[in-house]
Amino acid sequence: MKTGVRALGIAESYRSETSHLAGAVVRASRVVDGFVFSSCTVGGSDATDAVCEMVERLDREDVRYLLLSGIAPAWFNVLDLRAIRDRTGLPTVSVAFESSPGLESAIREAFDDRGTVEARLETYRAQPDRRRVSVNGEAVYVRAVGLDDDAAADVVRGFTPEGGRPEPLRVARLAARGLVDAG
């Protein structure tokens, strides 16, 4: 991957009812090139819109990829990767850092309202399957829209100079934590 290629990584940190989202534009060479911030509701259903609005506000034509930390930030505020790709035009890659049997049973246990459960499950089930990807000897779990599985793995590896966390997501997570700590 060329060193000047840019990705926007979005990660979250939360306490209480608001999740703070941070986006970091990072070049493949590890140069941080910009930030954007937003929030979404813990336990809500507004994370997809918040991510799309962050990309729109950032307004950077040079960003080639969107990397998201996980699929369900802010206590099961499930992201719709296809909707994000359609609205932003960016190949969208969700990266998880732990193996899991999936979120269906956890979503069912977390919410009492049947309508809420079914809406989240419908969005969750519509997402591409996770694929295990080896990165620097570590495993990450990737879902991608707008890229085939091999290209998505190449993007994740290309933005991960060491360890298993892509640099745009590492920097975004630090920025999100800083927002929470400052508040």
Polypeptide structure, described:
- This protein has 183 residues and is of the alpha/beta class.
- The chain has a single domain, classed as archaeoglobus fulgidus dsm 4304 fold (2-Layer Sandwich), CATH 3.30.2170.
- The chain has 7 helices and 7 strands.
- The chain has helices at 47-58, 73-76, 81-88, 104-110, 114-125, 149-158, 167-182, and strands at 6-15, 18-27, 32-41, 63-69, 92-96, 131-135, 138-145.
- It has a 7-stranded mixed sheet with strand order 3-2-1-4-5-7-6, sandwiched between helices.
- A hairpin with a 2-residue loop joins β1 and β2.
- α1 packs parallel to α3 and α4 (104-110) packs antiparallel against α5.
- The relative contact order is 0.20.
- The mean pLDDT is 97.
- Belongs to the UPF0215 family.
Shape summary = globular
CATH top-level class = Alpha Beta
Classify the beta-strand content into a percent band: 25-35%
- Characterize the biggest β-sheet: 7 strands, mixed
- Summed up, the domain count is 1
- Main sheet strand line-up: 3-2-1-4-5-7-6
The helix fraction, in percent, is 25-40%
Poorly predicted ranges (pLDDT <50, ≥5 residues)?
none
Spatial separation of the terminal alpha carbons? 37 Å
Derived from helix and strand composition plus strand pairing, the structural class reads alpha/beta
CA-based gyration radius: 15 Å
- Note the quaternary state here: single chain
Counting H and I runs of at least 4 residues, what is the number of helices? 7
**CATH topology-level fold name:** archaeoglobus fulgidus dsm 4304 fold
CATH architecture: 2-Layer Sandwich
Number of strands: 7
What name goes with the CATH superfamily?
archaeoglobus fulgidus dsm 4304 superfamily
Q: Could you state the order of secondary-structure elements as H and E?
A: EEEHEHHEHHEEHH
Overall mean pLDDT score? 97
